[in-house]
Amino acid sequence: MTENELIERDKAIERFKNLAGVYDLALKDCNLEKEVYPHYEALMRGKKAVMELGVKVLMEAPVVSVRKTGRWVYKPRDYADGVYECSVCKEPYYLDGDTPLEHLYHYCPNCGAKMEN
Ligand SMILES: [Zn+2]
C-alpha cells in the first residue's frame, strides 16, 4: 500500500485553468497550423476540454483538512520574562517563566497547529 499524498487544490485548479488558457490561445492560431496539422483544431479543443474537466473534477473532489505544524519560538524581553510565539500564527504566550510543554501546549491554542517542540 502506498502512502497518501496531498495536493493543494487551489494550485492544481490554477494550473489546469492556465493550461486551458494556453490551448484556448492555440485555438485562436488554428488557421495558421491547419495546413500543416489537419487535426490541430480538434486536438486543441480536446486538450482544452480535458483541462476544463480537470478543474470540474478538482472542484468536486473530497477534501481532508491538514493540520499545520509549527514550533514554539522563544522571544526574550528586557523588562520581563520572555514570551513563546507560535511560528504559524505568531500569537505570543506569556507563561510566567514556564515553557509551553509545562503548560501541555502540544498544540497552539490560537490556530491549532501541532507543535514540534
Ligand atoms: Zn498558532
Walk me through what this model shows.
- The longest helix has 21 residues, at 40-60.
- A three-stranded antiparallel beta sheet has the order 2-3-4, with no helix packed on it.
- The chain starts with 8 loop residues before the first helix and ends with a strand.
- Helix 1 (9-28) runs antiparallel to helix 3.
- Strand 3 and strand 4 form a beta hairpin.
- It has helices at residues 9-28, 30-33, 40-60, and strands spanning 69-70, 72-75, 83-86, 92-93, 114-115.
- The chain is an alpha+beta fold and 117 residues long.
- Helix content is 38%, strand content 12%.
- The chain folds into two domains: 7-60; 69-115.
- It is elongated.
- Residues 70, 86, 88-89, 91, 108, 110-111, 113 line the site of zinc ion.
Flag low-confidence runs: none
User: What compounds are bound to the protein?
Assistant: zinc ion
Residues in helices, as a percent range? 25-40%
Question: Termini separation (Å)?
Answer: 31 Å
Count of separate structural domains: 2
Determine Rg (CA atoms, Å). 25 Å
